[in-house]
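Preliminary data (for renewal application), flavin-adenine dinucleotide complex.
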Amino acid sequence: MALLSWQTGKLIDTAEHGPATRSFRFEVTGVNDFTFKPGQFITLDLPIHEKPNKRLRSYSIVSWPDGTNQFELLVVQTPGGAGTQFLFHDLQPGGEIKFRGAQGVFTIPEDLNGSIFLICTGTGVAPFRSMIQYIYKQGLQPENLHLIYGCRTRDELLYFEEFNQMASEIPGFHYHPVLSRENWDGLQGRVHAVYESLCAGKPESRFYLCGWKHMVDEARQRIRDLGFPDKSVHLELYG
Ligand SMILES: Cc1cc2nc3c(=O)[nH]c(=O)nc-3n(C[C@H](O)[C@H](O)[C@H](O)COP(=O)(O)OP(=O)(O)OC[C@H]3O[C@@H](n4cnc5c(N)ncnc54)[C@H](O)[C@@H]3O)c2cc1C
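Predicted structure:
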């Protein structure tokens, strides 16, 4: 399949996003336009192991399709992790990397009617940033779209100003940042209490969960316990 053939990405630049999190902007060589659906991921083949299946690391695309041949990833450094060690310390601007994709079915809902809850922690916000920027740029009108984003501290909240600005300009989009380990004048605690109170009395709600197992598993169970059918829940599990 053409979409899943290996291509080459050249690192253009990087940007720091708080402690241990960095974005990486790549240009796809040999094409004018790199198309993907907001929410999809790509898989990198990193030179970190002899065995091909131990070299692969997937990352959601944090940018949105804009008609260029570029895409951006948002990566948190895993202590002792071979893939992130390579990305953070060995890969330099101008360096090239093999990747395949974009792929995946965790994509922007085609129908933006009703209540939709996008729930994430940490870099799990990446596919949602792509979706919401796309909605913003295309002038789409969600009816009742909530981003519930949990982090430990204020400096870990990625794209804080950007999401606040989009929430003030996109009618129907609501941004709920939640901090678990720092006092501030916003929501405090974990993500779960936030969607549990917002979805009460809205039986047609749809849920999109993205991030690491502990949060995603707990959210899926809690949503089940609230009586929502499994088909109302979409997942992107990072590990
Ligand atoms: C579809 C998909 C999309 C992904 N998108 C992103 C993304 O946009 N941004 C991103 O940073 N990562 C993303 N990941 C995770 C990424 O693929 C790697 O697993 C991660 O970068 C760690 O790679 P590593 O080689 O450094 O560590 P490894 O040596 O492969 O990982 C060590 C262990 O730590 C676990 N782990 C790694 N990071 C965390 C964490 N923050 N919290 C809890 N456990 C963790 C892993 O599951 C693994 O068991 C995605 C994974 C998948 C499957």
